[in-house]
Write a structure and sequence with these properties.
Largest sheet: 4 strands, antiparallel
Order of helices and strands: EHEEHHE
Structural class: alpha+beta
Helix content: 25-40%
Low-confidence stretches: none
Shape: globular
Distance between the termini: 25 Å
Number of strands: 4
Length: about 100
């Protein structure tokens, strides 16, 4: 499994403009072969964090190259993000507990 961690800070006042695209990207990613999960969080200081899991590097790369995702990436760089960081991780261990 591959985990993609996307950390970003938005330009001021841009949240409303990107809401629709953000929802569409989550829906589109979920339909991609190899998609496992998507979670999004915002910290108290305003940093956004998205954690996306894919079955393999190939399926994560297919998502990265998807034409509509590429357009959202372009808009993000040009209009929405003040800064971002993407970290791609190989899962070394994965376990859980549920009471």
């Amino acid at each position: 499994m591959v985990v993609v961690v996307f950390r970003a800070r938005l330009k001021p006042g841009i949240e409303k403009e990107m809401e629709e695209t953000d929802a569409w990207m989550a829906e589109l990613a979920a339909a991609m072969p190899g998609f496992v999960s998507y979670r999004q969080y915002v910290s108290a200081d305003g940093e956004g964090l998205a954690v996306v899991e894919f079955e393999s590097h190939e399926t994560a790369a297919a998502w990265r190259a998807h034409p509509e995702h590429r357009e959202a990436q372009r808009l993000g760089r040009e209009r929405w993000f003040a800064e971002y960081r993407i970290t791609v991780c190989d899962v070394a261990r994965d376990y859980s507990f549920k009471a």
